[in-house]
Every structure is written in structure tokens, then in C-alpha cells.
Amino acid sequence: MSTPSAASATSIASEIDPEELKRYSFGVWSYKQGEIVSLMIHIGDQLGLYRALAGAGPVTPAELALKTGLQERWLLEWLRGQAAARLLDYSETELPGGDSEGRFELTPVGAAVLADEENSLAFAAGAFSGTTPEATVEKLIDAFHTGVGLSYQELGPNAAHRTERMLGPWARQALVAKIIPALDGVKEKLEAGAVVADVGCGGGVALLAMAKAFPNSEFHGYDPSQHAIESTQQKVTQQGLDNVKLFVAGGESLPGDASYDFMITFDCIHDMTHPETVISRIRSAMKPDATWLIKDIRSKPSFKENLKNPLLALLYGFSVSACMSSALSEPGGAGLGTLGFNPEVARRMTEEAGFTRFKLHDFDDPSNLYYELRP
pTM here? Predict the structure, then answer.
């Protein structure tokens, strides 16, 4: 392949509108800024800085240093960066002698998004838990040559941890209180005593939320990632739950004995190499009157329709780095990817597996839709 000569490159550059060049360059560098701000959010989350700022009002770096035991100079630089990113409010107070004192504040809205992991459905700081290791990046680059991606097991423990924290708020706060009561007869079954399977349980947030809320029922967690299952097992032990069983296995390994009363798959059908096989196995594992709850990404059938989503580039980045990669981690994988399991695809694939009842729920989850299915 030929490359442009220096003369032709100079000619092209001379024909570019300088203002258009500035705008395009700014757009590119704004993504680099986003990468760096993401790192700063991760650092703030790990150090507990957002939690320290929540409800504290306007504080100086010295006051935050006293509260956290951290170095004031480092906090000053971090706080200034957060204010520059419009994540913290900044104000100055005039002092005697002509000096001024800068104060930084995390607003209640900011606290809901960055500090309150246990009570806020808008909590997002968990999504910033670390960057992708360089070795993983190299493997992803290689996947563009081979066509074979990385499974969640190969993506390592950080991927499992980040996914757990991103999905945690809705699983902990809305699943038991809001979503399960909206399903036909499911809450009553769980209260009486049912056998439940979470296929693709990840770090077990949804599984454990149900296990604690419904002690009369038995809960089985399936996930092919040993990292995820080990993390879940630690929580099961710490919380003293005796109604949870865990399996390092994908949905293809489900028993076909129609033994489950309720099944869930949260944010994982689109990650599967052979979703049609798993859907069929789920159908075989369910009792005739059982319910299957699917949670999956909000998306439209066409790229043009999806372009209305202001976070679409982020979703495609997730897909290349994790979701589609997992869905292509075996030769012949379906490769649905993050946006591939839209309502039309969900209805078609489940009908082909023998499901006769399909109901879409919109629980105002900004990222996901929910599907209630019966055999």
C-alpha cells in the first residue's frame, strides 16, 4: 500500500479549514481528557474522597486533608481537576489582607452519582474501577486479526469487579423492591419457597439480594468466570447465607430437568457465544409455570435509530473491549455485542426456543429493558 509523500501531505494540510481543524482536534483531545478524568474519578472513589465530601458543604483542601489523613498538596491538585471537570463546585472567600480561600463542594446530585453506592440508583463511580491492562489491550488488538475475542475469564478479575459495581445499584435497590413485585406471581413463589437460577450471575449482586430477601427459597448462581464465582463465594460466606449454591459454568450446563421456578439473566445474553443454545437450555430447565426475567441493554434494531443515544460511542467501546469480545471468544460465536439483543431480537430468539409469553417491562432503568417470559 502506498503512503502519501511529504509534498502531498503538505498540500492536503494547506487545504484544510483552520477552524475545522481546531474543532476536530478539540474533539479528539476531549476524549483524552475523558480518559484522564476517568482515572481521577477512580482514584477519588478508591480513596473515599467523594464519601468524605458528601454532605460536608464547601471545604478547603486543608479541611479535607484533616478529615481523610491524606496529603493536602495532592488533594489540592485533585480537587482543582475535579472542579475543572465540573464534578465539584468551586467558590472563593476573601480573607483579611487581600488573600482568598478556595473551597470545593460535592453537591447532593454529585453525591448521588459518585458517593452513595448503597442507596442511589444513579451511582456511577464503580464504572471507573481501573483501566484495561496493557496485556489485555494487546489481546484485543490481536482479535482484530484472528476474529476470536476474550472471554470474561480471560479479561481477568478487574473486569468482573467493574461489572459488579456498575450493575450493583439496580440489583440491590430495585430488584426486590420494584421489579420482582411487578412479575406475575413470582414474589409469592419466592416467599413460599422456590428454586431459582441466576445464569451469568457475575459477582452475585442480584443473586445475593434475592437470597437475603427470600430465605425460604434456594438460589443457584452460574457463571463461566471463576473470578466472578470466587468473589460471590466470599460474599456468601461473609453474609452467612445457606441458601446459595454456585457453579463455575455457563448456561449451556444447565440441567434439563425442568426444576427451576424462576430464572434470571442480567446483562449477559448479548455476551454469550451461543445465546440460542443457552436460551434453549433455560427453556428446558424451567417448570411449566416458571418465569424467566431477562435484563438487557436498551437498544434499537438499526444503527441509525441508536445514533440518538448520546452515550452510543461508550456502548460500542464497551462492546469491542468486553461484550462483543466475549460473544466472539469461541470460533463461530454469535457476536451480538452490547447493543445486539434489542427487543425484536429478544422476542424472535425466545419464540424460536419455545417461549409463548413475552412481556416487555420498562422500569425507568436508563440503561436497560426487562423481559418477562413464560414457557
Answer: 0.78
